[in-house]
Amino acid sequence: LEAPRQAPALMNLTLEELIAGLQNGFRHEVLEGNVGYLRVDDIPGQEVMSKLRSFLAANVWRKLMGTSALVLDLRHCTGGHISGIPYVISYLHPGNTVLHVDTIYDRPSKTTTEIWTLPEVLGDNYGADKDVVVLTSGRTGGVAEDIAYILKQMRRAIVVGERTVGGALDLQKLRIGQSDFFLTVPVSRSLGPLGKGSQTWEGSGVLPCVGTPAEQALEKALAILTLRRALPGVIQRLQEALREYYTLVDRVPALLHRLANMDLSSVVSEEDLVTKLNTGLQAVSEDPRLLVQVVRSKETSSGPEDETEDPPEMVSEVPEDEASRRALVDSVFQVSVLPGNVGYLRFDRFSDASVLGVL
């Protein structure tokens, strides 16, 4: 394994040199749709972070605070300093209290260190009601993996991309005897983020919530955020449809309450949304006929087979001969007896009362 690069002693670096080094590992911008983008290629340690807190708050976080969602790109982050973890997690932690996020075991000293979020941050925390997506790749390693895993376990972020490398938090380069050969070994170990006991990402890597090739992860993340941005409007339209059209009116209040309180934090696709809505609504209504479906417009259809038919016209005149009348009834009403002696009646259009009276 390649040994970690040794950074110059921090005491010998000026503030300008620290800022220049930080800017090489940080990139931020606001994308279309008011989505904040922060790419982090290296996680500085506590000493650097504490010296640069004011610079980061003024030049990075302040510009991202007004965005409606955030993408944290860790696809190129192969390591970092353990002591820098709280400075990343704390800005995304929505709570007002400190949170124990990990416990680190140090092999040389045989000691453990608890990692907590900071009591306070400069500026504001990123809003709890805003979505966060973390991008990962097969090269994402060490401290970056721990950050991705912690945010995933906190249910604070959706991880999109590839399974991470499953490396070690910290490596040490050891000379073998007096030779020119060196051995790089892991010297720190996560004992389980958020007190999850033996559950850890080391060895196995962090499994993304949505798997996709790393080079397509940002595009996928933006598509997910577009869907999630539309969720409040979808819920509102469903509530309006239930109020106006659902025939089991005594169950409507319970359905509206279920929709208003449904947890959609894990929804990352239209299929997820439809499944969650149908499961929740049918459980409340006890009505298997109450179904939510994705309806695509003709503009987005892939071919003639996807085009929806025009709605049938209302019948206003009754044919004179008996055979034509029977054919008309058969075209309007479908009647059958299903297994279990269940009657089935389907009609797709209504007619005037005078027409129905004749028929």
TrEMBL record:
Keywords: Receptor. GO terms for cellular component: cone matrix sheath. GO terms for molecular function: retinol binding; serine-type peptidase activity. InterPro entries: ClpP/crotonase-like_dom_sf, Tail-specific_protease. One of its GO terms (biological process) is proteolysis. SMART domains: TSPc. Residues 14-213 form the Tail specific protease domain. It holds the Pfam family Peptidase_S41. It comes from the Eukaryota. The keyword Secreted does not apply. The keyword Oxidoreductase does not apply. Residues 296-321 are annotated as: Disordered. This is Interphotoreceptor retinoid binding protein. It comes from Delphinapterus leucas (Beluga whale).
